[in-house]
Amino acid sequence: MSDYDLDDCGPSTQGLRAGRAPTSEQEHSEAIFATSSFTFGSAAEAAAKFGGEEPGNIYSRFSNPTVRAFQERLAVMEGGEACIGTSSGMSAILATCMALLGAGDHIVSSVGVFGTTVSLFNNHLSRFGIDTSFVSLTDYDAWESAIRPETRMLFLETPSNPLTEVADIARLAEIARRHEVLLVVDNCFCTPALQRPLELGADLVIHSATKYLDGQGRVVGGAVVGDAKRVGEQIYSFLRAAGPTMSAFNAWIFLKGLETLSLRMEGHSRNAQAIAEWLNEQPGVRLVNFPGLPGHPQHELARSQQSAPGGIVSFEVEGGREAAWRLIDSTELLSITANLGDVRTTITHPASTTHGRNPPDKREQAGIREGLVRLSIGLEDEADLKADLERGLAAARRM
Ligand SMILES: *Cc1c(COP(=O)(O)O)cnc(C)c1O
To answer: Using an 8 Å Cβ cutoff, are 272 and 378 in contact?
Structure first.
């Protein structure tokens, strides 16, 4: 079974079958190797494994069979040669930058990336001489003109959060190739079940596994996927030295998450499509952001680049912050939390939470207005979601 070539299989099969390496116990579901270290048959074997002449497990900071199974499964799903599991999505981004960049290097990032990513770039990497410029996700001229001789990396998320703008990955890959810089895509919102950036020309894919890969809101983790040299050697070497390691227990949770990823992403997308279409017709709703709506500015691009629109929907209610808060507080089923990618629908007010630290004028300029509400659509029944949102909308309209 483990010799079966899964590279050409669909994401459902890959999520269920890739990375399986049963032990002599012939377990059907992966074992959790809850051990910090591994023993050697002899001093010579220990020396050979430490020296890298012989493969094998040494110490769980950098080699653990459960983590390896997760890495192999996700690598196959993303179509990459290698994958490194990390302790969080942020440590996946940190490990990538620390392993591949140095003082004097420059990053060009899309402006709407995850807030903590902006903080990592601006407040932390900057102290090590790594500078970052931010450009609009869909302004390809801006990407190109932000590139300097010392630029090493283009970094983006698509679709963006919370406005769901979609960037043309192949077009950015062409720009990256021409300037000999890396294209790094945070594939958190689509996952390999809906979008495979490496196939479109990206060099590296980042994941916050905390989101859809687990999908059930249980544990924090991350991953980087790409080629054998950058991921398998350079980023691996940083992980081994610095230790932002994924635990075996968490790797097992993510392995189980990957088994249902395709099915869940289809369900999230289907529910989100229904909710977005419905919201679009509700009085008091000004604007609905969702790539699956024909009126979305990159609807056609999303259709060709993604196999489904994903589960993130945002919309603006009339009445600003007061109405948005009233709406959120009047829902009874939805979970008020900034997390996303969960099987349970979550509702957030970006302007006062995830984007709250941005100055109000910058926030408005970026389209994060006071009436904006973000939904990460879960797998509840569509009718129940609509009934709960209707409760919220009615309360907002009564203001
Ligand atoms: C949550 C998130 C991250 C950070 O991941 P953690 O697992 O919370 O460290 C990075 N990128 C995106 C797009 C995210 O949503």
So the answer is: no
